[in-house]
């Protein structure tokens, strides 16, 4: 299978590249400098040149707080960029897989969010990701939308990715105990993205590691347990205490209604995935 992967320098795209190459795929990984997905003509030309079997879009504006003051750039990547890729894939008869987010939900549901739940995004980042979903299907009904959340992995700089190094350096870690999600190891998500690209079954999928979900505090404590770090370095905090610029869902746990029915195995428990991440580091 020939794949074009966008956002080549990002954490998830790196995991997707490595996984797909190990599976024997021909991978063309494109950075922003090599293809700006917000440029419709550039996208059309490049996808027509490469003629892939599928495109996996990992490019996005993902800085949730900075999005509040960089609305134009956020829309360019998360809305226009997704539409451009979806349209280009339709023109060359390629499958299109794009990564969306748990943040399309408002967090008022304490149980898991499924595809039956109505999105209600709160901030600029979340709204653009939801608009990208809608527009992808509008221009290319063959689109595959993959919502995930709390993604961490090698090369990542977000909280979940950074906790092990912070603890290894002897630093204190402030972790929120009243905000909940489903941690997702980038390498495991990469495997699911490839599966979906190969299956070419349009629709909305939720892809996260299994388990009951957790808080950031739970995740940090699990890192301590598995990595044998000092629990005393974990400082519990509340969502409101941090006073971030962008609103976030308090609980955004995801589960998928269709994956297993379509023959995709459940992704492994997040604690087992965490063990692999700590070992790979």
The number of helical segments is: 9
- Quickly count the domains: 1
The appropriate CATH architecture is 3-Layer(aba) Sandwich
SSE string, helix = H, strand = E?
Answer: EHEHEHEHEEHEEEHEEHEHH
Specify Rg, calculated over alpha carbons: 18 Å
Going by helix content, strand content and strand pairing, the class is alpha/beta
Strand order of the largest sheet: 2-1-3-4-5-10
Report the CATH topology name.
Answer: Rossmann fold
Global mean pLDDT: 95
Helix content: 25-40%
Shape, per Cα inertia axes: globular
- Per DSSP E runs of 2 or more residues, the count of β-strands stands at 12
Question: What is the straight-line distance between the termini?
Answer: 29 Å
Tell me the name of the CATH homologous superfamily.
NAD(P)-binding Rossmann-like Domain
Q: Mind summarizing the main beta sheet?
A: 6 strands, parallel
- The CATH class designation is Alpha Beta
Content of β-strand:
15-25%
What does this structure look like?
- By secondary structure, the protein is α/β, with parallel strands linked by helices.
- It has a single domain (2-156, 182-213, 251-270), classed as NAD(P)-binding Rossmann-like Domain (Rossmann fold, 3-Layer(aba) Sandwich), CATH 3.40.50.720.
- It is built from nine helices and twelve strands.
- Helix 3 (71-92) links the parallel strand 3 (54-57) and strand 4 (95-101).
- Helix 1 (11-22) packs across helix 6 and helix 3 (71-92) packs parallel to helix 4.
């Amino acid at each position: 299978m020939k794949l074009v992967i966008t956002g080549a320098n990002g954490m998830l795209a790196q995991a997707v590249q490595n996984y797909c190459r190990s599976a024997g795929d021909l991978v063309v990984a494109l950075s922003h400098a090599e293809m700006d997905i917000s440029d419709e003509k550039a996208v059309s030309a490049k996808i027509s040149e490469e003629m892939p079997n599928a495109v996996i879009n990992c490019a996005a504006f993902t800085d949730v707080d900075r999005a509040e003051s960089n609305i134009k750039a956020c829309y360019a990547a998360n809305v226009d960029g997704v539409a451009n890729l979806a349209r280009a894939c339709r023109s060359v008869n390629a499958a299109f897989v794009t990564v969306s987010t748990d943040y399309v939900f408002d967090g008022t549901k304490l149980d898991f969010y499924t595809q039956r739940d109505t999105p209600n995004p709160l901030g600029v980042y979340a709204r653009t990701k939801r608009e990208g979903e809608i527009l992808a299907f509008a221009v290319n009904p063959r689109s595959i939308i993959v919502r995930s959340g709390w993604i961490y992995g090698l090369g990542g700089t977000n909280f979940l990715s950074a906790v092990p190094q912070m603890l290894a350096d002897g630093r204190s870690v402030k972790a929120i105990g009243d905000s909940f999600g489903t941690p997702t190891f980038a390498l495991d998500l990469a495997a699911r993205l490839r599966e979906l690209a190969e299956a070419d079954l349009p629709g909305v999928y939720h892809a996260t590691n299994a388990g009951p979900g957790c808080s950031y505090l739970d995740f940090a404590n699990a890192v301590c347990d598995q990595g044998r770090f000092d629990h005393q370095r974990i400082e519990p905090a509340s969502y409101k205490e941090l006073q971030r610029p962008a609103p976030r869902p308090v609980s955004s746990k995801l589960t998928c209604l269709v994956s297993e029915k379509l023959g995709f195995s459940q992704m492994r428990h997040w604690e087992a995935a965490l063990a692999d991440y700590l070992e790979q580091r």
